[in-house]
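Study the following:
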Amino acid sequence: MSTVNKAARFPIPLLLAGALTLGLTAPAQATPPDIPSAATANSELAALTVASEGSLSGYSRDLFPHWITISGTCITRETVLKRDGTSVVTDSSCAAVSGRWYSPYDGATWTAASDVDIDHIVPLAEAWRSGASSWSTSRRQSFANDLNGPQLIAVTDNVNQAKGDQDPALWKPPLTSYWCTYAKMWVHTKYRWSLKVNSAEKTALQSMLGRC
């Protein structure tokens, strides 16, 4: 995962060309599965347990094994890259060698897989603080590689890195037009995995769902 800011990697005109020129045609929208309606998300949010966040003591990303093999030589990351991109070409190891990826967090389009991260909508550290610290490693692996719900999405790498492990009370996608969808995905993931929310997080999610 690259940690270099794009503004440092590319001159501004080139950055804009790479992110925006390709947007002259309608971009493919990264759409994870099982995104609920706003009404369902509001009901699920109301059903979540509200509690103070737990400690990060003992946390390690290694306790959430990823990425794992999904099919053949394809790991979770490459599977999501193919799902969320357009015209994605892969090599014999299933690595994406070309394609286009539109990041709904910031509206940028990229043509190199190295510019794209696979974001855990609910970050692994956030899950740990919200209940996953008591899970088995097997359950944490399933969570970290969840392709059945809206937990994984391809987005601009340094935008994902800016998010870190913050919940919606502390970080939201730069594009306010995506806040509704982001909140629906966040709530549904926490609901599916029986994770808790804190009070500030719940308030932020209610406000974001109010935009739907």
Summary: Confidence is low (pLDDT under 50) at residues 1-27.
